[in-house]
Amino acid sequence: MAQSIRISMRVPGTSPMPELLDMIRQIEAAGFDGAGILDSQMICRDTFVTLGLAASATSTLRLFPAVTNPFGRIPPVLAGAAQTVAEIAPGRTRVIIGTGYTSASTIGRRPATLRQMRQCITEVKALLSGESVEYNGMTNRLDFAGSDGGAGVPVLMAASGPRSLQLAGEVADGALALVGYTPGIVEKALEHLEAGARKSGRTLEDLDIMFAVRTCIAGSVEEARRLARPVSVHWGLMWGGPNWLPFSGYDIPEYEIPQGVYDIYPDLGHAPNWEEAIDMTSFVSDEVNGQLCDALGLIGTAEYCTERIQEMAKCGVNQLYLMPCLTFAPPQVEVEAFADHILPALASS
């Protein structure tokens, strides 16, 4: 079991850099496979500076931006930054590109379109492969592409909807799927990825597929679900959940969402006052919130989360990207829970 499940941890760059690097070292020492560095320019330290320093501070950890976007850095800049990190950490660097979320909302713009995503991923892959790309009538290439010894840098696409999953399957080297975490949801998501892969003459086996799961670990399942309320309600009722809950096995009622919930900056799932956000989601019953939490990810005690990982591994989920519910806080609680309980339990099973 231990070798068949690879688990990465999200790391927000909201702490001072020395503390950030210490956390990344802890993640490697705990036995995680990888670390994803949040990319949100108004909230976090620079992602690629952090990745470069993390590459020098670690020896086995796979490193990647989670996730970057087409507008914070144009494709040639993304490719050059990724290649630079790969020279420090050859064979353990990847790029994950998404439409941008807080990266967009905090500068008053909309996330990237799927058309823009297709162009960005295609160009970054081409540049990293040493191919030439045309810009404004000039054809040019990344002069130092492949200078990490030919290990290559995989380019994955973060996807949370059916159309984005199909695009990821078609043009990217793989996908980071934020869709939920039940057998029915995973099965449907893989169908969309496979449909996209067929368009480019590939199969699911050709894709590097990670499932992003929101994570909250506490002393009791009830407390973990309470702490996760802003995330579960945001995802389940306001964002991606409606695409996937019909396949979850749960029957979630419709709710009228108070305007104050919509008004939270930058949004409910990233609320700066977490306890206030918990209170504002009290219009959803504890029972429904529990179902949303189980549909969304790993929310409960360490023992409960271990059992869920083992069960979902039987459905083919062998790569996880953990996204702690407190988006902009260091993932200390989750790192310790996985180091002390979950990863050893998976290793011995």
Describe the structure.
By secondary structure, the protein is an alpha/beta fold. The chain has a single domain (6-348), classed as TIM Barrel (Alpha-Beta Barrel). The chain is built from 15 helices and 11 strands. The strands form 2 sheets. Strands 1, 2, 3, 4, 7, 8, 9, 10 and 11 form a 9-stranded parallel beta sheet that branches. Strands 5-6 form a two-stranded antiparallel ribbon. Helix 3 crosses helix 5 and helix 14 crosses helix 15 (332-348). It starts with 5 loop residues before the first strand and ends with a helix. The model has no long low-confidence stretch (mean pLDDT 94).
The span between the termini is 6 Å
Structural class: alpha/beta
SSE ordering: EHEHEHEHHEEEHEHEHHHHHHEHEH
Give the proportion of residues in helices.
40-55%
Oligomer classification: single chain
Give the second-level CATH assignment, the architecture. Alpha-Beta Barrel
Instruction: Give a count of the beta strands, DSSP E runs of length 2 or more.
Output: 11
What shape does the CA trace take?
globular
CATH class: Alpha Beta
Classify the fold: give the CATH topology: TIM Barrel
Q: Kindly give the count of domains.
A: 1
Strand content: 15-25%
Spans with pLDDT under 50 lasting ≥5 residues? none
Number of helices: 15
CATH superfamily: Luciferase-like domain
How confident overall, as mean pLDDT? 94
Report the biggest beta sheet as strand number plus sense, adding barrel if it closes: 9 strands, parallel
